[in-house]
Amino acid sequence: MTVLSGTSRKKGKSLIQRIWDFRVIYLMLLPTVLYFALFKCRAVWGMSLAFYDYFPRKANVFAGWKYFNQVFSSPTFGTIILNTVKINLMRTLLCWFFPVAFAIMQHEVTHRLFRKTVQVISYLPHFLSWVVIFGIWNSALQYGGLLNNLYDLFGVEYKNLMLRSNTIVGVIGASSLWRNIGWDSIIYLAAILAIDTTLFDAATVDGASRWQIIRHVILPSLVPTMATILILNCGFILDAGVDQILVFQNTAVQSAIEVLDTYVYRVGLLQGSYSFASAAGLFKSAVGLVFVVLARWGSRKLTGTSTV
Amino acid sequence: MSQAVSRARAGRRSIRRLTAGKVIICVLMALLCLIILVPMLNMVAKSFCDPAWVSKMSGYQIWPTVPSVIHYRVVLSSDAMWVSLKNSLIITLGGTALSVVLTCAAAYAMTRPGLPGKKLLMGFFLAMMVLSAPILQWYFVMRGYNLINNRLSMILYGCVDVYNMILLMRFFEDTPPAILEAARIDGAGDWTLLFRIFIPLNKVPIITVMLFYIVPKWNEYFASGVFLAKDEVRVLQCYLRSFIVDNNSEAINSDIYMLFRDTNLTALQYATIVVSTIPLLCLYPTILKYFTSGVLAGGVKE
């Protein structure tokens, strides 16, 4: 090694010499790279099982596109894709419009203590696990719960919204909104606070009302943030939040909110059709990858920065 | 003259409209807080209520009719809960420690100027960020390493998040070069630089990243349910799931059956939820302090 470093110093540093200089740095990167190579890469590569017949004790046999044909010709698959996209679009739009409105409201409130209290309360649900949120929602929506009491107040007959397949989708959307409205508003609030105050002053001097200021000063400056968030969320079009869906699924509504992730989990791990589930999973990952890359590219085009 | 009057009237109208708008906004915000808080407080109230009265309490009552701590006595004497709480703590704390060290080291390494192959490595990390595999494939990987029903599987699962690494890199890049020069001249190696300069200088983003690891690890139940199926390695959220979502009353241990008999199952579930949320509530002030700044740094910076 000493010979090598001696010769290279004369001619300026060779690549090998430079790599040797950075050996400690590579050592720092080693565990991270190893984790990705030994776990994540192996898991991603494992999806190639979709092209093989699975045998527990001996080598797998190549099966070509057999399992993909099975997936695409399965009668439930279309419904599941539709469910996934439907739930996702609903959630994306809900958790897009309301946080913006909430951020503008927070900005309009001048009383500091009131605003802080509202923020502390509204951020809290974001940190609860979906199991806990299910517990809270179940207690509010079951017979004799909060919503039942409210219905009684107006004399309307109550039917448990969580046990009916045409209302469960709404419950999914509402609980997402309940969890995220405060948290998602932070980024918009920051965008509002970043607006040059002279714009507000100029508008006030011109005699603009509060509403006109919101309409013509605040909203236009929120457009880039709103567009970025929307585009980035569209990248996750096939991720319908398995953590949330799984707890809200019960035997009465399971098929109504069956999404791609829960389907792959159920067919693969619970029913043991490994190759079939791998094919569905590979389809999801591939389409998801295309959407994510497109979304990142789109948001970069839009803002001119490389936000991650 | 008449113009001035009409303008004054318009001005007054706009002031009146403004206050009306403000009242509406405050009412809406208060309503939102109620929608968030009332179901939670109602649950807490029911968990502290005497078993005989639980079912008679209304959905918006936030104070127990007849206070009692019997449900908490049952919940806290359940071995299954303590075991799962211990597992959750081991996984969350151990996993976060490992994750933060690896992320810091990687972020430091990736911000060294002139590192050969930096572009290649970054491409690899970005690919790792956008690629995903279903839980089934993760199960096979963990089974391949014999990690099923071993807590190490959940410590390793998702142990480096590239997003967090990039977040830290942005802060590490901003470290003043003069300090580094001085330290180099004093003979500091890379480890010294990382642990004595970068980590102390970037406490806020590192704590933020730490919380970004802690919260999902604590709340995670899907992968841990797959990898850690046995009772003795089950995590708290999975225990909660079997008790609350699947309504499996045997989840709570049977040797406290005598205490269990004259209690209310619903209130027991609520008490379990409350107990499981306490660690998070203890962290909440810290979370509020650092999380918001982290979100803004990740999204808005540059």
Please, what is the average pLDDT of chain A? 86
> Radius of gyration of chain A in whole Å, from Cα?
26 Å
Q: Tell me, rounded to a whole number, the average pLDDT of chain B.
A: 85
Which regions of chain A have little confidence, pLDDT < 50, spanning 5+ residues? Answer: 1-10
Poorly predicted regions of chain B are: 1-16
Distance between the termini of chain A: 41 Å
Classified by CATH, the class of the domain at 79-251 in chain B is Mainly Alpha
State the shape of chain B. Answer: globular
How are helices and strands ordered from N to C of chain B? HHHHHHHHHHHHHH
Query: What percent of the residues of chain A sit in helical stretches (DSSP H or I)?
Result: over 70%
Question: Architecture of the largest domain in chain A, according to CATH?
Answer: Orthogonal Bundle
Q: Work out the helix count of chain B.
A: 14
Order of helices and strands of chain A: HHHEEHHHHHHHHHHH
Could you tell me the CATH topology label of the domain at 79-251 in chain B.
MetI-like fold
Q: Specify the CATH homologous superfamily of the largest domain in chain A.
A: MetI-like
What's the overall geometry of chain A? globular
Assembly level: heterodimer
- If helices are DSSP runs of H or I spanning 4 or more residues, what is the number of helices of chain A? 14
Estimate what percentage of residues of chain A fall within beta strands: under 5%
Number of DSSP E strands of chain B:
0
